[in-house]
Amino acid sequence: MEAQKVDMFIMTNGKFFESQQILQIRERLIQMDESKWSFIQTLQFKDPTISLVVSLIGGGFGIDRFLIGDIGLGVGKLLTCGGFGIWAIIDWFLIMGATREKNVAKLQQILY
């Protein structure tokens, strides 16, 4: 794959991934077959900032976990009212990283 296309993808979507993983993602995209490129461009990633805002507003009901696809954790937070508030507060610090991990996992399903 052309390095220029990959660099444009990284510049556009870099905020959706952990900074230490971007170099590895770039190398894997460069090695990728050209036929997968159109599918990679159509992937929709979750925004970590939106996840944080949702967590601040509705984290006690598990809405943040439902948003990123952690259905089991979302149900757990919903049933326990955010772990009696403690789990909701902890998620304020963890939800952005969890969102980025989900985005990397989605990309890796296509790349590998």
Index terms:
112 residues; single chain; mainly alpha; 0% strand; 8 helices; elongated
- Tell me about the largest β-sheet: none
Based on Cα principal axes, name the global outline. Answer: elongated
Mean pLDDT: 92
The DSSP helix count reads 8
- Quickly give the structural class: mainly alpha
Poorly predicted sequence stretches spanning 5 or more consecutive residues: none
> What's the count of strands?
0
Helix content: over 70%
Strand content: under 5%
- Helix-strand pattern, N to C? HHHHHHHH
| Alpha-carbon distance between the two ends | 15 Å
Output the radius of gyration: 16 Å
Number of domains: 1
Could you explain the architecture of this structure?
The chain is mainly alpha-helical and 112 residues long. It has one domain. The protein contains eight helices and no strands. Helix 1 packs antiparallel against helix 2 (22-31) and helix 4 (48-58) runs antiparallel to helix 8 (86-111). The longest helix is centred in the last third of the chain and has 26 residues, at 86-111. It is elongated.
